[in-house]
């Protein structure tokens, strides 16, 4: 038997290994294995098993698998098929894709550690619970008994020649052997808690005979009250929250036989501090019912179908999601919900927790390693019915998936920016098809690709054009800044009279305001007034942003920063001009204008750690009157007290050198406008612009997605841009600009060779470049790129593959590219 193993190396195909006879009966697709690679061992994922080789002549050269790392397969055959599809479609190394699906605590070598817990009080021997303990395992156990710290599995294997991971897994059944996963000195292990029950008193005795202290009586009363509600036991965590310092009293009660204690594994809850509102039961609106009926027909037949749910802000898309998920769970199936940035929408999780309780697991990058460890194991053990997470949650080991929901499907955060550059929105449809599940792409502003696919019949279009309870959409006014009189520096530079008056009325009515400005910091550009010197980042081809609170200049791309200089480094003149306005400067203006108002700022500088949740909760409780923020304020929040929204500089996103600039502007404006008027009070939105006649702004003013999409799709059709064309960007990054340019030229030469051999391909694919990237230098690396564009997906892929193979053919050693990072980005969403 032979195995195709995905090893984390920059190769596009899996490597072939022989399956030794000792592993033949236990090895399955999806197992993590240890294999020899060159002169060392590496871990890899088994992708396929076969009895034959395509080229039998190489059989003698194939090396055997050394060991199975974990006795349980990490995914099934559908999971490995899904990974292979991603690798093939995005032209990515299969090992790189496999890394996406495996959390770090299982995929990396040397992470599994063992330690021996303290011996039980009754003096039970260390070998209890280990059947047929052989000499190898006895040696390991003796070593653990001598060691005070946990010992890596690979170090234990080195004790005895021939000791395998599979053999070591026998130790995990021992009650005193603890397994942890340790990475970068951060220990990740199972968390336990103590649980207490009241022990029955001997016949004829009562608590009055026990002479208990007041705290002991309080503890017993507290436990008894919870047990009467149907609970089996009460955790130490709950007792601590109700009664301070209960430990000595609990120990005394246990010693006197009044309490029994057990220690059990518990999971860390990343949202345990989030308030959970009691679920409200709403009758579905007519449009919600129509949508649910359409999804329900596919559910009843248990077949794959992709839907685009186009619902305006406040139309009740979350209610549709919950009802559709409840139907899947009732049928014995599970659900997956993908959000663009889950850390920004804790209220979404709170709503789901209110309806589904502990059936939910949450996965995203903001979790601690310990929390990820717990959540992943709950999913793998089939202990949850719903997985909610960011794009990486798409790879969760969830079985029996009935529905996959991609909320805010238009958001570019679903596109992976490093490694295998997959788009979770598109791959959700692929996984849904493999799982025979329903896939719902929901948004108030669907991406033009999804919208076009729905209108052309590839997906099913579902519309919810009205807000719930017949609440009106907010009125939108475009404020023309072109004729604004020159005035002294101050608030009037960035806030129009119309917006200021609306804010005054809102505060007088004790309602709330959101101001959206997609620039953080105090001033985005700092120049010398005398010589014109621009303070630029030494690593990137961008100007540095002045942050007044830190009195520093910072690059928002590489995070390089310096102290704000007192004079120009070129001419030594102290006249330094801070140009433009960011959220920090706007916040300061507002404090001057509205000294009695509570004003907060929500951007990356103010939302680190737990600050984000505190700001959002305070604003929802109306403890903040005005919230100033970047895109963070647009991400699906539900603030019932907001009636006024101001877009301070609507032109910022329009000026990007990107064919999607108009689409992103329309989406941003529509999403931020949707924060207003979500309760009983009508909302008003003010969009300030120097280009008030732009079609994306006019369509946003009328909440007219159809008008915008018709105009934008016509432009895309003429220029063969998505969804009418297909793009592949090949990007080159290197510290040495000359090598970067040479690599780009070599790849373009390879493309011209392909064109010479295939005239039809030359006529159907357009190659732009090689050219310097719009951001020509980033994080110390020069950047060049080639853009391939065609109306045929097959043609543009054929050229890209021909280029990659062509370079390998005439430059087999690729010695010129060892210090050049070459990135293949299929269906790019960012052109900078």
From TrEMBL:
Cofactor(s) this protein cannot do without: Zn(2+)
Binding annotation for Zn(2+) 2: 537, 540, 555, 558
Alphabetized Pfam families for the sequence: DEAD (PF00270), Helicase_C (PF00271), PriA_3primeBD (PF17764), PriA_C (PF18074), Zn_ribbon_PriA (PF18319)
Key words, A-Z: ATP-binding, DNA replication, DNA-binding, Helicase, Hydrolase, Isomerase, Metal-binding, Nucleotide-binding, Primosome, Zinc
Annotated InterPro entries: DEAD/DEAH_box_helicase_dom, Helicase_ATP-bd, Helicase_C-like, P-loop_NTPase, PriA, PriA_3primeBD, PriA_3primeBD_sf, PriA_C
Keyword Amino-acid biosynthesis tagged: no
Coiled-coil residue spans: none
SUPFAM superfamilies (UniProt xref): P-loop containing nucleoside triphosphate hydrolases (SSF52540)
Binding residues for Zn(2+) 1: 528, 531, 568, 571
GO molecular function: 3'-5' DNA helicase activity; ATP binding; ATP hydrolysis activity; DNA binding; zinc ion binding
GO biological processes: DNA recombination; DNA replication initiation; DNA replication, synthesis of primer; double-strand break repair
GO CC terms: primosome complex
CDD domains: DEXHc_priA, SF2_C_priA
Function, as annotated: Initiates the restart of stalled replication forks, which reloads the replicative helicase on sites other than the origin of replication. Recognizes and binds to abandoned replication forks and remodels them to uncover a helicase loading site. Promotes assembly of the primosome at these replication forks.
Subunit note: Component of the replication restart primosome.
Name by which UniProt lists this protein: Replication restart protein PriA
């Amino acid at each position: 038997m032979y195995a195709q193993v995905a090893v984390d190396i920059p190769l596009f195909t899996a490597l072939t290994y022989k399956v030794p006879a000792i592993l033949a009966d236990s090895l399955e697709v999806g197992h993590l294995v240890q294999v020899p690679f060159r002169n060392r061992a590496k871990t890899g994922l088994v992708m396929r098993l076969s009895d034959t080789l395509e080229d039998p002549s190489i059989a003698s050269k194939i090396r055997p698998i050394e060991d199975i790392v974990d006795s349980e397969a990490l995914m099934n055959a559908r999971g490995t098929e899904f990974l292979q599809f991603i690798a093939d479609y995005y032209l990515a190394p299969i090992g790189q894709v496999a890394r996406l699906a495996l959390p770090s605590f299982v995929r990396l070598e040397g992470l599994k550690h063992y330690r021996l817990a303290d011996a039980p009080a009754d003096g039970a021997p260390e070998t209890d619970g280990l059947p047929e303990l052989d000499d190898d395992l006895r040696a390991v156990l003796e070593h653990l008994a001598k060691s005070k710290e946990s010992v890596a599995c690979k170090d234990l294997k080195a004790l005895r020649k021939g000791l395998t991971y599979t053999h070591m897994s026998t130790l995990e059944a021992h009650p005193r052997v603890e397994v942890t996963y340790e990475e970068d000195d951060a220990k990740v292990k199972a968390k336990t808690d103590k649980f207490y029950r009241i022990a029955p008193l001997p016949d004829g005795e009562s608590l009055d005979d026990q002479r208990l202290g007041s705290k002991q009586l309080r503890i017993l009363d507290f436990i008894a009250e919870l047990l009467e509600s149907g609970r089996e036991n009460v955790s130490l965590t709950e007792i601590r929250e109700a009664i301070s310092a209960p430990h000595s009293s609990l120990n005394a009660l246990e010693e006197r036989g009044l309490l029994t204690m057990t220690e059990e594994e518990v999971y860390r809850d990343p949202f345990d501090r989030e308030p959970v509102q009691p679920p409200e039961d709403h009758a579905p609106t007519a449009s919600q019912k129509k949508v649910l009926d359409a999804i329900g027909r596919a559910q009843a037949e248990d077949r794959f179908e992709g839907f685009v749910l186009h619902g305006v802000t406040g139309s009740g898309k979350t209610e549709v999601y919950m009802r559709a998920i409840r139907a899947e769970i009732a049928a014995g199936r599970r659900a997956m919900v993908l959000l663009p940035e889950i850390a920004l929408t804790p209220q979404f999780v709170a709503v789901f927790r209110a309806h589904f309780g502990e059936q939910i697991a949450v996965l995203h990058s903001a979790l601690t390693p310990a929390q990820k460890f717990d959540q992943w194991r709950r999913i793998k053990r089939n202990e949850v019915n719903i997985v909610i997470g960011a794009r990486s949650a798409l790879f969760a080991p969830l079985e029996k998936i009935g529905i996959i929901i991609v909320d805010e499907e238009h958001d570019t955060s679903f596109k992976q920016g490093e490694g295998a550059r997959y788009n979770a929105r598109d791959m959700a449809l692929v996984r849904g098809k493999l799982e025979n599940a329903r896939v719902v792409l929901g948004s108030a502003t669907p991406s033009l690709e999804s919208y076009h696919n729905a209108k052309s019949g590839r997906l099913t279009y579902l519309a919810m054009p009205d807000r719930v309870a017949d609440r009106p959409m907010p009125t939108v006014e475009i404020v023309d800044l072109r004729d604004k009189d020159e005035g002294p520096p101050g608030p009037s530079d960035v806030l129009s009279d119309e917006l200021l008056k609306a804010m005054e009325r809102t505060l007088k009515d004790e309602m709330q305001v959101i101001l959206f400005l997609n620039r953080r910091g105090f001033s985005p550009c700092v120049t010398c007034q005398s010589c014109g010197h621009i303070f630029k980042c030494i690593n990137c081809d961008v100007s540095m942003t002045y942050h007044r609170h830190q009195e520093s200049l910072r690059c928002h791309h590489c995070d390089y920063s310096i102290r704000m200089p007192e004079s120009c480094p070129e001419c030594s003149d102290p006249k330094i001009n801070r140009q433009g306005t960011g959220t920090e400067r706007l916040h300061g203006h507002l404090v001057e204008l509205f000294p009695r108002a509570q004003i907060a700022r929500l951007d990356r500088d103010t939302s680190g750690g737990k600050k984000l949740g505190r700001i959002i909760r305070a604003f929802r409780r109306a403890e903040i009157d005005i919230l100033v923020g970047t895109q963070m304020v647009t991400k699906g929040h539900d603030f019932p007290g907001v009636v006024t929204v101001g877009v301070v500089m609507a032109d910022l996103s329009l000026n990007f050198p990107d064919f999607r600039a108009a689409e992103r502007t329309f989406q941003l404006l529509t999403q931020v406008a949707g924060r207003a008027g979500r309760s009983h009070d009508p909302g008003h939105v003010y969009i300030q612009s120097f280009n008030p006649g732009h079609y994306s702004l006019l369509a946003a003013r009328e909440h007219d997605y159809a008008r915008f999409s018709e105009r934008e799709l016509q432009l895309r059709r003429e220029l063969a841009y998505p969804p009418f064309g297909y793009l592949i960007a090949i990007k080159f990054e290197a510290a040495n600009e000359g090598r970067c340019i040479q690599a780009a030229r070599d790849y373009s030469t390879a493309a011209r060779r392909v064109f010479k051999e295939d005239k039809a391909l030359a006529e159907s694919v357009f190659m732009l470049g090689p050219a310097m990237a719009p951001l020509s230098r980033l994080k110390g690396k020069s950047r060049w790129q080639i853009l391939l564009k065609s109306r045929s997906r097959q043609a543009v892929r054929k050229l890209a593959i021909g280029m990659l193979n062509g370079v390998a053919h005439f430059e087999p050693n690729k010695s010129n590219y060892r210090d050049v990072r070459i990135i293949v980005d299929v269906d790019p969403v960012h052109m900078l």
